[in-house]
Amino acid sequence: MTAEHTRHSTGGIALAADGLGLRYGGRSRPWSLRDCSFDLPAGRVCALAGPNGAGKSTLLTLAAGLLRPTEGTISTPERERMAYVAQDRPLYPQLTVGETLDLGRALNPGRWDADAALAVADHPGLRPNATVRSLSGGQRTRLALALALGKRPELLLLDEPMADLDPLARVQLMGLLMADAAEHGTTIVMSSHILAELADACDHLLLLHDGRIRLAGAVDDLLDAHTVLAGPAQDADLSPYTVVVTATTGRQFTALVRTEGAPVPDGWQRSEPSLEELVLAHLRAASATPEGAAA
Ligand SMILES: Nc1ncnc2c1ncn2[C@@H]1O[C@H](COP(=O)(O)OP(=O)(O)OP(=O)(O)O)[C@@H](O)[C@H]1O
């Protein structure tokens, strides 16, 4: 497979990977991302989840076109139609807030959405004449998000956007992002370790573990496909199901399974997992298998 980065969106797909892999620093180095294939439909708000070192930032950096794949392909919109907020929020420290927004306008002629940028940047902590180097981490994030939304992107790539924001700012900025996605059909991919935050906002999931895709798809479909079974331990026959994880507490047995349509035995309770339960179960299962192979 050839290594390439394709810039187009086709058939309503905003981001697609096919056999995508990356080794930092050449062939003798370990894989940071391996065999990643997925399609992200346009207009989705996608949670990118996974433990530290799973490859989330690597995938976002590849999507932003700042790294070339070692193998496989990644397809995105044209560079002008994407915005990327990296984990370290790169900005020019010597510029003021106002000059940074002016630069955003100058670099995006004909596309700059001053209202969208101002909706994020208009905040008492972000005075127009303050220099970027004087801003706190959370204020810098706010400015980086203002630049990204002002670009009016079709695809918005956000690496832990809420990590250094206070609780009020998180709620406000998450609301602005969701409103933007709803109004303009923006596709958003956001990484986070806060699963509850992702569950509230996202309708699509990419779960990475050890550089590989563990789960990918619409959140509703993934939740529908999984069931939590609870029953007495001595009756546990899970052979009809694909088992993700099991747990025994005293005589009570629970399992997260894909029932694949098989009936639930009498005396057992079934419930739909939360997104958080689903993610944690798959991460536990991946940690327990040597290769973290996808279920
Ligand atoms: N510049 C680099 N050079 C070499 N290895 C790297 C580099 N950046 C990341 N890696 C390695 O690639 C793997 C994936 O890292 P990545 O930063 O993509 O993970 P992540 O899921 O974003 O983690 P976190 O949640 O901690 O931010 C890790 O093993 C990491 O050590």
UniProtKB/TrEMBL annotation:
The answer to whether keyword Magnesium applies is no
Give the matching InterPro entries. Answer: AAA+_ATPase, ABC_transporter-like_ATP-bd, ABC_transporter-like_CS, ABC_Transporter_VariousFunc, P-loop_NTPase
> Which stretch is the leader sequence?
none
Per its record, what are the GO molecular function terms? ATP binding; ATP hydrolysis activity
Lineage: superkingdom: Bacteria
Q: Which source organism does the UniProt entry give?
A: Streptomyces laurentii
Q: What is this protein called?
A: ABC transporter ATP-binding protein
| Key word Iron-sulfur present | no
| Keywords noted in UniProt | ATP-binding, Nucleotide-binding, Transport
Which stretches make up the ABC transporter domain? 15-235
